[in-house]
Automatic annotation (TrEMBL):
SUPFAM superfamilies: NAD(P)-binding Rossmann-fold domains. Keywords: NADP, Oxidoreductase. It comes from the Eukaryota. This is NAD-binding protein.
Amino acid sequence: MGQYLSALDVFGRFLYETTLGSYIFVPNPTFTANDVPDLTGKVVIVTGGNTGIGKETCKVLLQKNAKVYLAARNEGRANAAIAELLAQTGKEAIWLELDLSFFQSIESAAAEFHSKETELHILFNNAGLLSPPESLTAEGYDMTFGTNVVGQFIHVLSKVETGFLRLQFAGPYYFTELLLPALYKTSTSENKPRVVNLTSQMGLIGASAFGSGLDFSTFKDSPKRRKMSGTALYSQSKLGNVVYAQEFARRYGDKVISISVHPGPILSELPRNDFDPNNPVFRFFFKLVTYPTPMGAITPLYAGTSPEAENLNGEYLTQWHRVGTPRSKDPVLGKELWTWLEEQVAGREYLNKIRAQIASLK
């Protein structure tokens, strides 16, 4: 019963934010896809670029002449998205195979990118996941927190109960770390590369729902974690994105701009594992209070491309590129999360090699 009450509490706050917060008090965006500057010569990676907000982001980047690497696991889906984008823009994205389930896949993706490019101007950490609370990785990590926070720092094979898809353990951390040499080589005093981490308003809700916002005892299987709903775990993981992005800015802000963004209440953000998305009443209501996918790309594109965002290192942007005020600007919490993330990848040979390269570039 407690798990369902937790889900209803978080879901109720989500509805309040998406209805009152998103429609009554939020002004229209002043930045649109048309305002993205020409990106000729810019190299960009979009994780999860084969669907949803990620694919829409790729579309605009291609229209603005960027060289786009579409990072995704499934070759068929990636190629289908690339073909669709080619038909729409006349420009072809490049598939970067990235399975956020394996250390080796992340390392292979980073190595492949480094073999083709020396610079990286923008990284959109867009890929994410909302999974049910019984979904764990093979090593016992919470699936949602692993995918949304850790693996853009760490990736482990995940096998879950029958009836659930094979999912990944990942997030913004590891992948970004492995790409730091290219980010550093791109950085100049006038222009710094950017890392844009997609999060959610659910992260703000998570901050109030969980006190400090991050309960480290629930990152792996535990009695407390098993009492939490999928939506509550998702909320916590999205707050983790914000905390991570801010700590990244503290550590690397002299070379790289790090911004976390809430894209707005987009249909793809539905808490699918606590509430049935196929329920006609549910779908009707959410169509009333959510925006179409192209609108979801506005704030990430602003963070990644607009000149104004150069001064927003470490900030959290809520929908339509407004600077938000998350309850997470706690350097102690940021350091604690970073230490935990570091522990998960300690001793990886490829990571040690990358860090040696980074040291030579400082």
